[in-house]
UniProtKB/TrEMBL annotation:
<dbReference type="InterPro" id="IPR036390">
    <property type="entry name" value="WH_DNA-bd_sf"/>
</dbReference>
<dbReference type="GO" id="GO:0045892">
    <property type="term" value="P:negative regulation of DNA-templated transcription"/>
</dbReference>
<dbReference type="InterPro" id="IPR036388">
    <property type="entry name" value="WH-like_DNA-bd_sf"/>
</dbReference>
<dbReference type="Pfam" id="PF03965">
    <property type="entry name" value="Penicillinase_R"/>
</dbReference>
<comment type="similarity">
    <text>Belongs to the BlaI transcriptional regulatory family.</text>
</comment>
<dbReference type="InterPro" id="IPR005650">
    <property type="entry name" value="BlaI_family"/>
</dbReference>
<keyword id="KW-0804">Transcription</keyword>
<keyword id="KW-0238">DNA-binding</keyword>
<protein>
    <submittedName>
        <fullName>CopY family transcriptional regulator</fullName>
    </submittedName>
</protein>
<keyword id="KW-0805">Transcription regulation</keyword>
<dbReference type="GO" id="GO:0003677">
    <property type="term" value="F:DNA binding"/>
</dbReference>
Length: 109
């Protein structure tokens, strides 16, 4: 997913293999992983000639937000889970969260 998120355009399997040349991955391995990402709904693909071009279905930030929401919804005590999450934040992260919450509390103009 990191390579898809970093790309400025959809990538073919060959482009992905080339982008990760330092990892020496087999073409078929990358093709299988991309197919699995598509099947699971994490990546979209379009046929371009004889090859598929893959792109992320959501941005990294959207994906992380979805994971956080899923984790919170799975907690038996959501209040306690949120408290632990906030306790683990650095001051600048807490300030950013406070600002977002303040903005949500304001009526839209």
């Amino acid at each position: 997913m990191d390579a898809l998120w970093a790309a400025t355009e959809p990538l073919t399997v060959r482009q992905m293999v080339d982008a990760m040349a330092d990892r020496r991955l087999a073409y078929t391995t990358v093709m299988t992983v991309l197919d699995n990402l598509h099947r699971k709904g994490w990546a979209d693909r379009d046929l371009a000639g004889r090859a598929y071009r893959y792109r992320p279905r959501a941005s990294r930030e959207e994906h992380v937000g979805q994971l956080m929401a899923e984790a919170l919804s799975s907690a038996a005590d959501q209040h306690a889970a949120l408290a632990r999450f906030v306790d683990a934040m650095r001051p600048e992260e807490a300030a950013a969260l406070r600002e977002l919450l303040d903005q949500r509390g304001r009526p839209s103009s």
